[in-house]
Amino acid sequence: MLGFNKLINQWFKEELEKIKKVDKKNIRPITVIDIDTLILYQDYFKDGKLKLHKLIDEYHSYTDLSIKVTTKEAVIDKLLSFPSYVSMKHAINSPPKMFRDLGTSIIEQV
User: Fold this and answer.
1) pTM score of the predicted model
2) How confident is residue 75, by pLDDT bands cut at 50, 70 and 90?
3) Most buried among 8, 60, 61, 90, by the most CB within 10 A?
4) CA neighbor of 80 nearest in space, from 63, 68, 65
């Protein structure tokens, strides 16, 4: 959902400000990732073609609201969901191996 991660992080930052005895320099932004994205990209994570922690860092850099933008499209980009960002940067042309294997086993049974 457009802007959902930003909204969650705004609430998270407000709550962090209430806690005085926490070293905040090591606290990372919250990233909501749906299970579908993890399943879709599982082969890429497993073989090391993509690193989840790097994708998350890239996502937060790309959607950083402190960097000023001037167009409507750029504003929308700042509000992208994590799955939208990942699919924009790393489009996948085939389903994960587990789904290909499942399809093959179903065809073999017919």
Assistant:
1) 0.79
2) confident
3) 60
4) 63
